[in-house]
Structures
1.
Amino acid sequence: MPNQTMIPNDPAMKELEECTVEQSVPKMHPLVVLVGPPGAGKTTVGKRLANALHTNFVDTDALIEQSTGQSCGAVFSKIGEPEFRKLEESKVREALGTSGVVSLGGGAVLSPLTRNLLLGHTVIWIDVDPEEGAQRTGADNSRPILQAQDPIAHYRELIETRRPLYREVSRHRSNTTGRGPQRVVADILGYLESIKEH
């Protein structure tokens, strides 16, 4: 059998080496990604869900705050929505490279890139009725996007704009209106168990 000659910088060999390296290093992948409007309870539910699954919790809003040293609201006001979404996209990419439970900011789904990054992930839509969502966020001055003369009408408008996007990226919806976090966590755990069986 003739000897095979190795060609320096052979693209085919380089591709094979890269594939081998990628296969030998398993990529991190979140168990669950939570999306939903501000005040729906993503952080509260996410932390409890992570505890129930014995895993870690990553919040992209917290990643933004850690990297900038400012609240998300302050960063949003300072750099404007387009630049904020770009920063958020980078933190979503970072979070999706971890394991555990990941929670995204309420407006993250407005970015086509973020929606594309969510493909193939188990995304749960944490929802809330406008009246309750507005009540939960009404006293929160750190959310400039929610400041309005009529908070309920503004919140309803915000949810209606984003609802198709939450629906697009998610596999399951859990409404937190009138329900404690533990009931929502139980609902999500039931869903995760059901998809394991298929």
2.
Amino acid sequence: MLVIVFICLLVPVILSVGALNLHLSRALLLLMFFPMLFSWASGKTGPVHMVDFAVFAAALWSALALIVAHGFSNAIEPVGYQIVETVGGYMVGRVLIRSPETFRSFVKINFIAIMILMPFAIIETQTGEPPIIHFFSNFVNSTKIITYEARLGLERAQVVFPHPILYGVFCAAPLGMVIYVLNFRAATPVSILRAFGVVVAAFCSVSTGAIMILSLQYLFVLYDHVTRQVKSRWLLLLAAFVFVYVAIDLASNRTPFHVFVSYLTLNQGTSYTRILIFDYGIQNVWANPIFGLGQKDWVRPFWLRPSVDNFWLLMAMRYGIPGFLLFIGSFILLIIQLAFRPFKTERMLSYRKGYLISLIGLMFALATVHIWLSAYVWFMMMLGAGVWMLDYSDDAGDQAGDAAPAGDGRGGQRARFGKAQADEPVAVAVPTSDISRYTRFPAKPGAEARAVRAPHPRKGR
């Protein structure tokens, strides 16, 4: 089913249903919405979590904000899209990904999709024409082709998305998961090639947001490697970030946001525009703090472009401060809950690390870009894809060959019917490497673990 989801996300076909123009991702979510919601409500996807309520509350508040801004009759269509894409996208990850195996499949399918699109992106950087969109445009209604000024001598690749930045975000964000999930034990030539492929694909968008996501994730990976022997190293990193933020705020005549944007963008003219958009956008937020503007035009100078290159700012502008807090709060809530989950096995520790690195890198980058349509659905699916970790326990040992040896309190096979009777022989699982301890002869190479019958305990006379 995950394969079908990614196909619908990435095939640039728009279906005309009456007066509605439905992208394939929206059409699929409409079909899956109520079955997924029923599966969640019936408890088939595990217990209900606070992040579930946060996502539902964000969707409902944004729907209410749209109704307040536009009236009920005019808001029906945008409200429907908002709820389906927000809750539906989240539910795809929440319902379909419920185990380490399905999570790894999700990451693998995402990586394969990136690699399939990469050759077309490379072609587009040289020609400026997206071959896939051109192909589908000959037969059906497809995504509009846009042209932007070249950067670094390369045309910006949109591939199958409405904008190059969306393609860049889609390729860049999974980097942490590709590194830590697809090969969690140690770096190999194959894992290095995978990471390099993700970087090349994302760079074809020639987008500041994509490069920021890549840079942040690589910094996290490097920090993790250098400080792997340091206890509470992630709390130390958080403290260092807060210290740097406060120091910049005190020492500079600009806000930390202005400083970061000015240094992290490829084009200084673009960074200046982003700062102006942020300043005027905040003024619109304070003018409409509760319900926001909805989809109305925002107040700005006539010469400033209407697009807002900041996802979190746009959430506050459209749906008010409560809407913004609910959206970003759902992500922060999941990150905090996962950070304190007591995982023990190497696989689960690595899976969590890769997921959080990808999610945090994406959250930071969305302060400089906006995402919509299929990219937004994928973004919400990314959030739902990590909720299974809140329900997963690896105390009994990891089932992918990462189980702890018997007797260390983490692994081993537990008695099915409670305590064994004193007169009953007990079967003890003996690892191959320990067979020589129970015989006079060394274990033969390749010998399998066998069961050794423990002697009866002596009865008192």
3.
Amino acid sequence: MDDQAPLTKCAYDDCDRFAKENKLCLTHHRWMRRYLSTAYLEETAPKVLDPKIQRMNPNRKCKADQCWSYARTGGFCTLHGGGRKCKVRGCATASQTGGYCRAHGGGSKCRQPHCADFARLRGLCLAHNLEAEHQGLYPASA
């Protein structure tokens, strides 16, 4: 991991989070991508983010050396043992919906009838989500 760049802060004004994508934290990267992809100019995008985002701890870096991921429960990212674990005894995999890992029945399934894939967005798997977007039921994902 020595080939990774040193930690840098988000380039967005007054943000103390760690940069992850294009010199921005994940929150601002997603936010900018959303507004820029919908033909907004940076100047016209709202300057105030969701109040929930403003309350987030800006120093949520994983405690593991040389790791740039965001910390979960316990101060570590899921790769380094943070976050909630599957309820099955002896399973150290991160839990999904319902408290179990996907191998033990956790995670949300696609809400389309007869689809056994895991839901990824809006309760749909990736294939059904794309299908719904093409049918105009949802706007394209940002």
4.
Amino acid sequence: MSRYPRRKRGTVSYAVDDSDEGASTVYEGEADENWRPRKKKARKSSTAKMRRNRPKKNYFPLMELPGELRNKVYEHLLCLPDNEIYIGDQWSKEASRKQAIYGCKKYAWYTSGDFSLTTYRQHLRTTVTNFGILRTCKAVHAEAMGILYGQKFRFGDIDAMQTFLLRLSPATIARLRHVDCFRFIVQTAWKYAPAIFSLLRPATGLEYLRIEGISKFRGHFDDKVGTEPHGHNMSVQGWDILVARNMAREVYTHMYPYMQVAVREKGAAGIMKILHVFGKALDEGPTRGNYGTDALRYSEAQLRAPSNRIYTAPWTPARASAMRAAMGEELARLAARDAI
């Protein structure tokens, strides 16, 4: 006997049952007037289902507001009250990016020294910003990012600026408008300055750039790059041009990767409108130095005046404009020389 017995199959009949008297027969080539195509059941899409289940709310028409009002909304959500962001070079003893946030009051480094370390959770509890709006849509993200990175970014050192810029894309760096390295550069960081400032090359839209560390002549003061011979008979104008050209050389030595791009995009006059180096010497003029009765101090740099006429010459806005113009022209000349 087979292991698997045959199943009993029913008898299949293909005979046509003509017993229905009222049944109508449709032959080939004829049409049935009563026949209608069966309607297909509409398939409900997932989008329609989501819309049906979505709670009915009155959404705020943000994108219908004028651009000025939208910017106010972005500023309220993304910006700090004083529109200043301080980024230091401090670190945590534990290997964690979110372990500590270094915060300080405005200009605390120069005044009260009121610094405080707070944990990341404490920082989130006290923060006034809300970045959730950046995830709304691409249009809102594009508008809000310009407001976020248009704030004043103040760095404790160029090392802190390097850490910040390394995490940003070139498109984001291009949104920066205000960069302020307000502390002096440590001795070990000078040799890395060109590499650090190369990260700033996409920031062609900067409106303010201060590098407090560039405040003296780290190489040597070349008295042969002026328009007049260096000596007792040198005019005040010739002296100012000589000092300005040496300042430009000092700046270009440490910042040439950025200066090559900035001078090309903004021009000599444009770069001098945003550049702030050597303290306030380019705006308020030199002060009396410590080397003697003939010493002039330009921020941290002290130079001996060739004559008493230059030493006692009053500072005027015309002298300030002439020095800035001479410095910008020298930066443009150095950038053009390297482009060959």
